[in-house]
Design goal:
By secondary structure, the protein is mostly helical. Helix content is about 85%, strand content about 0%. Helix 1 runs parallel beside helix 4 and helix 5 runs antiparallel to helix 6. About 25% of the residues are buried.
Length: about 160
């Protein structure tokens, strides 16, 4: 039986995206805060484990490290792309003003640090550019891919055939 490896990445990425969207729709973002992101990392780790485990099971119960790593990386990268895409849609269309509250806080901190005039405007423009839907989705994509590589290596070591 051949395993459809893409399925694991799609399901994991969509699950993370729906998890974040659901928390936002239920207004739980502030209450859960960092736990939302941490839980998504756990979901990605679990999705990669699931993909490697499922592949190992489908080929007779043993998997080489190289094959396990390849499976884990492809699952992790796909889930990161899907997750980042869902977040982009979320920030672009569902909460387009998400950066406004953050920018007020950033402005207060910059003023308190002594910045004013042109220096303040340049710093605010730099932060504003970072808090765009593309910027947020891009950072999520890069971090998720990097962590997926790490998670894939850990899971491959756990699940590969021991010599």
């Amino acid at each position: 039986m051949k395993v459809n490896k893409t399925k694991h990445g799609l399901i994991t990425g969509l699950f993370c995206g729906v998890w974040i969207l659901g928390a936002d729709l239920l207004k739980l973002n502030d209450a859960l805060g960092r736990y939302l992101i941490l839980s998504c990392l756990i979901f990605i780790f679990g999705g990669i484990f699931w993909a490697i485990f499922d592949t190992r099971r489908s080929i007779g119960g043993e998997i080489e490290f190289k094959e396990a790593l390849k499976t884990g990386i492809s699952t992790g990268v796909l889930s990161a792309i899907i997750f980042s895409g869902v977040l982009f849609i979320h920030y672009k269309y569902m909460v387009p003003d998400f950066a406004d509250a953050i920018m007020i806080e950033v402005k207060e901190k910059l003023i308190n640090s002594g910045k004013s005039g042109e220096e303040l405007e340049q710093a605010l423009a730099m932060f504003r550019q970072d808090f765009t839907p593309t910027g947020q989705a891009g950072k999520t994509l890069l971090v998720s891919i990097f962590l997926s590589l790490f998670f894939a290596a850990i899971n491959a070591l756990i699940l590969c055939k021991k010599d």
